[in-house]
Amino acid sequence: MSQETPQPDDSRPGDVRAAAREKARQLRTSHQRKERRRRALIGGGITVAVIAVLAIVAVVLVGAIRPTVPGPKNMASDGVLVGSGLKVKTTTALKADAAPVTSTPDPSGSTVDIRIYADYLCKLCGDFQRTNLKQLEPLVKNGAVTVEMHPVAIYTSHSAGTKYSLRAANAAACVANYDPNAFWKFNASLFEKQPAEGGPGLSDDVLKKRAEASGASRTNDIDACIDDGRFKSWVTTASDRALSGPIPNSDVKKMTNALLVLVNGKPYTGSLTSADDFKAFVLQAQGDQYSSTATPTPTPSATP
After folding, report:
1. Contacts from 158-164 at CB under 8 Å and sequence distance 24+?
2. Region (Disordered) spans which residues (predicted)?
């Protein structure tokens, strides 16, 4: 029986080693590619995380650090002082970051000093102003009373995202800056037809119309000031000062809500819808002032 002749093996030792080297090279290349991808993903993740952290920090810093701008003219005390004839006491604009210059009450005590800190969206503020501004107006005109209005923006987040408190206070600052003698009527108009808390408030166009209806003549300047929010940063800073205190010319440490009324430095805590109650408080404060500033009666000298 014939045996099969073994076939020769075509594999040579050199070819086997070459194939092994090629396989090893391919494995190394694949591993290197995977490693590069892994490092890229890790590096990318770190970069994204760093960017995210930096973005958060930037937002926090932007929110915490407000741009410093000069304040409006005629509001160096953070308020508008209205006196005899409903005329506003004129002042130069506060420089950026400058401290307010507190107005000085009449040292003789003959004029009652009333200071009102109010938010234009605050319903209680509106109740007080609608109840009392009309009876105060003739007293201010004849010089018996001065009223210093301090617009504050405390309810800025309570107007469906429109920031009405801030916009309205900015508009008041614009009127004070460009046409101060229209301020009394403009301020009153924002409370006479006051928007509801929680709603969007008045539009900027309506604020402009209210300024014009209040007798302002420099409407182009006021309109531009309202459009660009020129004094918004200042309003926020002035509001912060009122909320952190102390309140000048009084023993009040700081504002604790959106309305603060001071009569000769004493806070009014009576009814906001009773004109008689507030009038009585004013008369009492006036009497107290007269008593404290009255000239003492000289003691008769003994006859020699």
Report:
1. 158/121, 158/197, 158/198, 159/121, 159/195, 159/197, 159/198, 159/199, 159/200, 159/201, 160/198, 160/199, 160/200, 161/200, 162/200, 162/201, 164/120, 164/121, 164/195, 164/200, 164/201, 164/202
2. 1-36
